[in-house]
Design brief:
This protein is of the alpha/beta class. It has helices at residues 4-8, 31-47, 64-76, 89-99, 164-178, 195-207, 219-229, 238-246, 267-275, 298-303, 340-346, 385-392, 429-436, 465-472, and strands at residues 20-24, 28-30, 55-59, 79-82, 103-107, 119-122, 144-150, 158-163, 185-187, 210-213, 233-236, 257-260, 280-286, 291-296, 310-311, 316-319, 324-328, 335-336, 347-348, 351-360, 366-370, 376-378, 381-383, 398-408, 412-421, 448-451. The protein has 2 domains: 4-370, Rossmann fold; 384-475, 2-Layer Sandwich (GMP Synthetase, Chain A, domain 3), CATH 3.30.300. A hairpin with a 4-residue loop joins strand 16 (316-319) and strand 17. 45% of the residues are buried.
């Protein structure tokens, strides 16, 4: 069988068939064995009706099955769409309704989730021993390889379409600073439904490195995997890093680079980590850029901890007159699925309009001053404040609300809500949290609700989010 993995690799990349592709606590799968699993799984998927150009939504925790399923779908010519497993059932079904996938494939852990449309539970698929080849038809690097949801400021979910070339170019450009070898071992430390986690799989498969799959993404299991399997590369967010430091864990010498992204990172946290032996490299990117487009190594981080890295050629970063950061790269998305208006507003003259505000200093380092479109990034998860506000306003006692994110050394940002109640009503923080419990995912529920008399607004009634943030900042230590 002509392997999809061979098609995404350059001729210079030589992968050893007997080298480890996937390492977990109870098993090790070689690249030869992985090729066989991909072949069997692709046959199984065709048996349940998956065909070329189908969208297939995936509800999987970070596990070996998910790593096998994605290239098996590519082998058929189908497009995987990993879903956020932290979402409520209603939110998952909204995304499924929006995509109209040919199939939703889920792991056994989620067999009791009531999902609309055609659903199959993995591995309840037939895996025939079939020597007949599945021919990869019409493979093109411009073909959509992946769709990932990202939060939009308008409240409407956005589904980012990334091509094979986007992913390949992102990996090749990133390799200029990561310098992969077949001896490298990537820790699968971030959710696969985020670009930060998915790019770990893609880079490893492309360069013939190993992926270490922890028992779960709990901090304890991540720590155990680092101790046991000694990865050489990892990608973390602030909350994970703080946990490791609180445990006084000294990383193994083998761990040569740890990418730190996912929003605000406290300088003291970074310095403490590096003083404890963590080789921190800061990066900047998004789902729309297929992972990071700028990078700075540990020495550079020491000198400029507030920066987000230097651009990696041939990527380009410019700052507009309005101080918006715009990016040009071969890794920039194809567009948003079924949303031409949003695609047009974000892709202009070959540049992606990030919505982030920042500047580039005289040494070429990028500094981000505020995150895109008021998006909140807490513990590596993107939270749209408009969605949270709309849900809070369903409570009849609430007159007005403004949700914002405050910088936090552990979580990157924490969610605060400034709430104005209707006259002659009373409500506590706990009552508000209880009200939201079954309406939005737990990571979207504000950590604090601050009751105020009125929100600062313009003459036209627009809430000044920056003023709300400045007002709440003293409350958060």
């Amino acid at each position: 069988m002509i392997s999809i993995l061979n098609l995404i690799r350059t001729p210079k990349i030589n992968v050893k068939p007997d080298s480890a592709a996937i390492i977990s606590n109870d098993t090790e799968i070689t690249y030869s064995e992985l090729e066989s699993l991909i072949k069997k799984t692709s046959y199984g998927l065709t048996e349940v009706g998956v065909k070329e150009n189908d969208l297939v939504t995936l509800l999987f925790e970070n596990n070996t099955d998910c790593i096998v399923v994605v290239p098996a779908l590519w082998q058929i010519g189908a497009v995987p769409v990993p879903l956020n497993i932290k979402l409520l059932e209603k939110d998952l079904n909204e995304q499924i309704d929006f995509l109209q996938p040919g199939l939703t494939l889920r792991s056994k852990k989620f067999k009791d989730v009531n999902l609309r449309g055609k659903v199959s539970t993995f591995p309840k698929l037939t895996f025939p021993d079939n020597n007949e080849e599945i021919i990869i038809k019409n493979f093109s690097k411009d073909t959509t390889a992946l769709i990932l949801f990202t939060s939009g400021s308008s409240g409407k979910p956005k589904a980012v379409m990334l091509t094979f070339d986007n992913l390949i170019q992102s990996a090749l450009i990133g390799n200029k600073v990561l310098n992969h070898t077949s001896e490298d071992k990537w820790l699968a430390s971030l959710p696969f439904y985020h670009i930060g986690g998915f790019s770990i799989i893609f880079r490893a498969l492309m360069f013939g490195s190993s992926v270490i799959v922890p028992e779960s993404l709990s901090n304890d299991d991540l720590l155990e995997s680092i101790k046991t399997h000694k990865p050489t590369l990892a990608s973390v967010v602030s909350s994970q890093l703080k946990y490791f430091l609180d445990k006084d864990f000294i990383p193994p010498e083998e761990l040569r680079t740890v990418l730190l992204g996912g929003g605000f990172a406290d300088k003291e946290l970074i310095f403490k980590a590096m003083n404890n032996g963590w080789k921190i490299a800061k990066v900047y990117g998004s789902t729309e850029t297929s992972s990071f487009v700028s990078f700075m190594n540990t020495t550079e981080v020491y000198n400029k901890p507030g920066a987000s890295g230097k651009i990696i050629p041939p990527n380009e970063i410019k700052i507009t007159v309005e101080r918006e950061v715009i990016v040009k790269s071969p890794s920039i998305m194809k567009g948003y699925f079924n949303n031409e208006q949003e695609t047009f507003s974000k892709l202009k003259n070959g540049f992606y309009q990030t919505g982030d505000l920042g500047f580039i200093d005289n040494e070429g380092y990028l500094f981000i001053e505020s995150k895109r479109d008021d998006l909140i990034i807490t513990g590596g998860e993107n939270v749209n404040p408009v969605e949270v506000e709309k849900t809070i306003l369903l409570n009849t006692k609430v007159k007005e609300v403004c949700v914002t994110g405050l910088d936090d050394s552990q979580w990157g940002q924490v969610i605060f809500a400034a709430v104005v109640l209707n006259e002659n009503t009373d409500m506590t923080e706990n009552e508000l949290k209880l009200f939201l419990k079954d309406k939005i995912s737990s990571f979207k529920i504000p950590k604090r609700f601050i009751l105020i008399d009125h929100l600062p607004k313009s003459e036209l009634g627009k809430v000044y989010r920056k003023q709300v943030k400045d007002m709440l900042s003293p409350i958060h230590p």
